[in-house]
Amino acid sequence: QVQLVESGGGLVQAGGSLRLSCVASGNFFSINHMGWYRQAPGKQREFVAITTSDGSTDYADSVKGRFTISRDDAKKTVYLQMNSLKPEDTAVYYCYVLSTKVYWGQGTQVTVSS
What we know:
By secondary structure, this protein is mainly beta. The protein has no helices and eleven strands. The radius of gyration is 13 Å and the shape is globular. It starts with a strand and ends with a strand.
């Protein structure tokens, strides 16, 4: 059974930093994309960042230059380093893994106070 567990969320002041981690466990045929989405209260889930199996990355415009995604395939882990956080970054952050299908984590809350 596949399971994704996020950690690293919390409460931080504007301008601060957090590092999210997402560990995947279970039987994967292969892992292609890994990434992060987020959902703020009353809003739709939105793309944040992605890292592909060839090491390329992409980011939402709203987080470019502030967030950095990385992965450790040996550990089946994807990270999201978030710097210069803003109150509008407040959301539940979800990691996902694309293998033969998409798997989602349960989410971790990030709250940025002004």
